[in-house]
Design a protein that fits this description.
This protein is of the alpha/beta class and 425 residues long. The protein folds into two domains: 9-191, 2-enoyl-CoA Hydratase, Chain A, domain 1, CATH 3.90.226.10; 216-339 and 378-409, 2-enoyl-CoA Hydratase, Chain A, domain 1, CATH 3.90.226.10. Helix content is 35%, strand content 21%. It has 13 helices and 17 strands. It has helices spanning 9-16, 66-82, 101-117, 134-140, 164-169, 180-191, 260-275, 292-304, 320-326, 346-353, 362-376, 379-384, 395-409; strands at residues 23-25, 38-45, 48-55, 86-90, 123-127, 130-132, 144-148, 152-154, 175-177, 227-229, 237-243, 246-252, 280-286, 309-318, 332-336, 340-342, 390-392. Strands 10, 11, 12, 13, 14, 15, 16 and 17 form an eight-stranded mixed sheet that branches. Strands 1-2-3-4-5-7-9 form a seven-stranded mixed sheet, sandwiched between helices. A hairpin with a 7-residue loop joins strand 10 and strand 11 (237-243). Helix 2 (66-82) packs parallel to helix 3, helix 3 (101-117) packs parallel to helix 4 and helix 7 (260-275) runs parallel beside helix 8 (292-304). It starts with 8 loop residues before the first helix and ends in a 16-residue tail after the last helix.
Length: 425
């Protein structure tokens, strides 16, 4: 966006909030030489109370200062007291270096505030322009990052890996938009899937029928409710959606091996949903994890999560993949009629479980191995042995089944052992 068409900080916030609902906070607060370099305030976004700040590039380039930090810290404090989401719009040339150690302390205070709010209220960072150095760390501490495709975002102020494509491919930017206006609208859309805080209930929308398309989650989600997250990162799909008007997190393994990037992507979705009691629906179709580390991370995330968890095996659920994504840590596990469930790779299981196959002539072994797989490593067999709760024959049936499960799980309550946090990274 050209300088002439650039939105001011006040324009950004008035566009973000519902008409007439924005109330500015500390509008006359001054620093050492001028007014603070950010506009802060609160208002309503689709009826939900939200706190927000926007860096003002018209004052010292929006650079972070002690005064700006005081305004933002007050916003975090109010968000914590009242249990409302906080959204930050970033666009500055860095920090007021002339303030030296006071600046470092200011950054530290903001990061501490953001950390205290993590998992308590949703936090969103919107990078509209330049966001470098410590400002980038502050922005990255939010739950989700929305980035203008022309923005610059990096902790390294002299590096070249700071554009939107790099940040999207490395899972840093969750959403990339073409303009400031689109970024603002995306922030409002993302907020619509979340409750105001971890003790509140997520907003419920009008119930719409599913409208299937090439996204597997659309078979169970309400029409036009799928919001993909981190499209360009990892080889699995994660998204928010609505089922029966209520928000859910959706994970789809796509029939691919789950690598470290995908594991990170899955874990973030599960842990965010768990923090705000948003149900997780997982479409399981994968034969393996690429590494032990990836498997441990995903297993830990699902095991620790106490929110409602429903898994639908759409293809293969082999060994550790079944354990991590569709085992007893889930409340309900369903499988399509054609699904394959096996403790090891299906072919290996055939040779292990039927020793007669290896005694056949080599040219006949493949045929008999496949026959064994079709007869013994099926969804029906898994259901008979208690590892699948029910068999589903088409996706329209899946929607009804999952709607029913979500309804019964809406009052789920689980007590966990007292501890600060898991040590599995």
């Amino acid at each position: 966006m050209s300088i002439e068409n650039r939105l001011s900080a006040l324009d950004v916030l008035t566009s973000f909030f519902d008409d007439g609902s924005f109330n500015e906070i500390d509008s006359r607060l001054k620093g050492s030489s001028d007014f603070a370099e950010a506009v802060t305030g609160y208002g309503e976004v689709d009826g939900m109370t939200v706190y927000a700040f926007a860096q003002n590039v018209d004052i010292c380039g929006g650079a972070m200062s002690k005064a700006q930090a005081e305004k933002i810290k007050k916003l975090y404090s109010l968000a914590l007291k009242t249990g409302a989401p906080i959204v930050g719009f970033y666009n500055s040339n860095g920090g007021r270096i002339d303030q030296k150690y006071e600046l470092l302390a200011a950054y530290g205070d903001i990061l501490k505030s953001a950390s205290s709010l993590s998992g308590v209220v949703p936090q969103i960072s919107v990078v509209l322009g330049t966001c470098l150095g410590t400002s980038a760390i502050t922005a990255a501490s939010a739950d989700f990052i929305i980035m203008n495709k022309d923005a610059v975002f990096s902790v390294d102020t002299v590096g070249s890996n700071n554009d939107s494509q790099f940040n999207a491919e490395h899972g840093i930017a969750n959403f990339v938009c073409d303009s400031d206006e689109e970024c603002i609208q995306k922030a409002k859309t993302v907020l619509s899937y979340f409750p105001a805080n971890n003790l509140d209930c997520a907003p419920v929308f009008e119930i719409l029928e599913a409208k299937p398309d090439d996204c597997i989650g659309s078979y169970i989600a309400d029409e036009d409710s799928i919001l993909s997250v981190n499209k360009d990162f990892g080889n699995v799909c994660t998204a928010f959606g609505r089922v029966g008007g209520a928000p859910v997190g959706i994970i789809n393994t796509n029939g691919k091996e789950i690598d470290c990037k995908s594991a990170k992507k899955i874990c973030k979705m599960v842990r965010f949903c768990d923090a705000f009691s948003i149900p997780v629906i997982t479409f399981v179709d994968s034969a393996s994890f690429k590494s032990v580390n990836a498997a441990v991370k995903v297993t830990s995330a699902y095991t620790e999560a106490t929110t409602a968890k429903i898994s639908l095996i759409t293809g293969q659920a082999i060994g550790v993949v079944y354990i991590a994504l569709a085992s007893t840590s889930c409340d309900f596990v369903y499988a399509l009629n054609a699904a394959v469930v096996s403790p090891v790779s299906p072919k290996a299981a055939a040779y292990i479980l039927d020793e007669n196959i290896s005694k056949l002539p080599i040219d006949q072994q493949e045929e008999y191995a496949q026959k064994f797989i079709k007869e013994n490593l099926t969804a029906q067999k898994a259901a008979e042995d208690g590892y699948v709760d029910d068999i589903i024959y088409d996706y329209s049936e899946a929607r009804a089944k999952i709607l029913s499960a979500l309804n019964i799980l809406s009052t789920k309550r689980v007590s966990t052992l007292p501890k600060k946090h898991s040590t599995i990274n």
